[in-house]
Amino acid sequence: MSNVISYKFERSAEEAAYWHAKQMSGEMTTDERAAFAQWLEGSEANRFAFEHIEDALTLADTAAQTVLSEKFEDELHLEAQKTTAWKAPALAASMAFAVLTLSVTLFFNYSSHPQSQIYATAVGEIRSVSLNDGSTINMNTATTLAVEYSRSERIISFEEGEAIFNVERNEAKPFIVELPVVEIIVTGTTFNVLASKNDTEIFVVAGTVQVKPISSHMRTLHKGDSISIDNNGSAGSIAPFDPLDVLAWTTGKLRFTETPLHEVVDELNRYFDKKILLRDASLSMLPVTGEFDATNQSAAINAITLIFDLNTEIENGAFILSKKDE
After folding, report:
1. 6-50 pLDDT, tens digit each
2. What was the pLDDT predicted at 107?
3. Planar angle of CA 213, 214, 216, nearest 5 degrees
4. pLDDT tens by residue, 260-306
5. HSE-CB of 177 using CA atoms within 13 angstroms
6. What domains, with CATH codes, occur in the chain?
7. Three-class SS of residue 109?
8. What sequence ranges are listed for the domain FecR N-terminal (predicted)?
9. In the chain, what is the straight-line distance between the N-terminal and C-terminal CA atoms, in Å?
């Protein structure tokens, strides 16, 4: 098993334990229920890990009940032989206490993952979150975050989505963003993270950011720097970026400069349930420069078809873009 696969499996197991404990607590918010459903459907590893915990708890509960039942019967038989009937209720109470102790032990074993506050956005939704320390997070479309604050550190974790973090400075309590392929460590700064199935991109708007990919050495990024981490945890080169393009989403806009059409389509598809597809692969590298409204899919499609003289059709619930001569 590779380090990446092992890491993801262990992470799924930890998250499954957290979600199971959260369900047992009976105190899940609407956001948390939505986040749990999204997490469960996010990967086979997540589903397997959660089912494994449920099976293990069921097996443990059955075994415990059997052992306790047998012990209860043996003790009752012994007490009957001693003809001390008054002890039976006390023994029953002790057995009930043992069952309760076992349940509590199992609960805390499976809820050892620090309790998190879950925040989520739906497709097309943008949300701002204010944290207890004064830091703020602006979350883009289809993003789920888990926030964990302890005495020594501030931890944010998520797998896919986008957010810009404006971190309140605290030298004694680092702010850590954990993703499957990289860990980001800061004490006070502003940076944007875009995580997809293919890679994770980090853009530093202000201050300094420490980036620790799982398959590369630590990198230090400063204001205006960006870096991409592939899905194997390998880091690319540090490069400059245009904040007007990268941060346009915070105002409900999407800006592109000489961006290949397939990347523009991928970005637009993050904001709408009904997807856009390119019928012809030759269209994928057409350069797009311009600004689109992230809430108006029809306007974006009309602009693209007008610029490149394309046809638009609807097939199987998706918009298909193709050349007019096809």
Report:
1. 444 456 677 777 777 777 777 788 888 888 888 787 776 677 677
2. 46
3. 60
4. 999 999 999 999 999 999 999 999 999 999 999 999 999 999 999 99
5. 32
6. 3-110 (no CATH), 117-244 (2.60.120.1440), 252-323 (3.55.50.30)
7. helix
8. 14-55
9. 46
- Is the torsion defined by CA of 178, 238, 210, 120 positive or negative? negative
pLDDT of residue 260: 97
CA distance 246 to 192: 8
Assigned token pair, 203: 């853009």
Q: pTM of whole model > 0.70?
A: no
Q: Please count the residues of the chain.
A: 326
Q: In the chain, how long is the greatest CA-to-CA distance? A: 98
* 8-state DSSP, 316: T
Instruction: Enter the tokens of residue 136.
Output: 């703020």
Secondary structure element (H or E) that encloses residue 271, with its range: none
Q: What are phi and psi of 13, to 5 degrees?
A: -65, -45
Which of the residues in the chain have pLDDT under 70?
1-12, 44-45, 48, 55-115, 326
Q: What are phi and psi of 43, to 5 degrees?
A: -165, 155
Contact assessment for residue 222 and residue 241, using Cβ atoms and an 8 Å cutoff:
no
